[in-house]
Amino acid sequence: MIGRLDWERDGRDWPHREASRFVETMGLRWHVQIMGQGPTILLIHGTGASTHSWRQLLPLLSRSFTVVTPDLPGHGFTAMSDRSHLSLPGMAAAIGDLMHALQIDPALAVGHSAGAAIAIRSTLDGLITPRVIVSINGALLPFGSWVGGFFSPLAKLLVSAPVVPRIMAWQAQSRSAVERVIVGTGSHVPPRDIDFYARLFRSPSHVAAALGMMASWDLQSFAIDLPHLKTKLVLVTASKDKAISPNDARKVLLDLVPSAMIERVEGGGHLVHEERPEEIADIIFRAAESRATSNPKSHNGACKKLLR
Fold first, then answer.
1. How far apart are CA 253 and CA 263, in angstroms?
2. What CATH number corresponds to the domain at position 48?
3. Mean per-residue pLDDT for 64-92?
4. Residue 119: inside a domain, yes or no?
5. What is the pTM assigned to this prediction?
6. Which entry of 69, 109, 262, 275 is 20 to 30 Å from 55 by CA?
7. Where are the beta strands (DSSP E) in 15-165?
């Protein structure tokens, strides 16, 4: 078991290491990966993940975009000094600070699971101004889903006991235990990705950040604010997702953001962007094209028009 992840030791073979850099903002030392050229697309991973979860999607998108993807506060190789960054508004503010430090305002924002809520919150708060937000199996509702149960008093109890992250990290010594967690979300990812998740879960500081993030979120207030979103929203759902019900996207569409669009992926699980990167890339390109032009001739042409 390791304490905090060390870049020289644990990041020696990290996916797209050559695209990595470290950026200092108030209270945070970010690990960020930047690749490609063109309009900027921001990728935000979900709870307990890291930049590695975009490893297959990143090179596909970087053909037409400048892709920026950070490890969230306390996750992966991003170090934080206090827990205030773990709430949803705190995460959004931190992302805003990072974009300011990088002098970037993304044209598109893509978030997976909790990362989708961060992208939307950042937009609602005026911290970023993307033309399109793509939510991949987004954790956007407080009730009726696995996330609603996980963001609960139980999570607060777990994170309040310092020994719990160490116990969970100790259990992650078993690769098969990590694989069971992944399969439990309805996903079947390549063995290499299981290895990266196992490396993350063996770090008590990473586990503590994931638990703290769950315990700190208020999705009820977020749901109240969702109808104020004016940015184009694309809701990607996977038919075999066992973590976030695909019906949640329909509830968001019917009750909160009627202008949203739903893109359904048949056969994918919660980590569908890792299982089906080409299909997810096509959805993102279509979202960019539909916002940029009604008659796109190419991905590059549509992406350029997003900047206008």
1. 12
2. 3.40.50.1820
3. 93
4. yes
5. 0.88
6. 262
7. 20-25, 28-36, 40-44, 66-70, 79-80, 108-112, 132-136
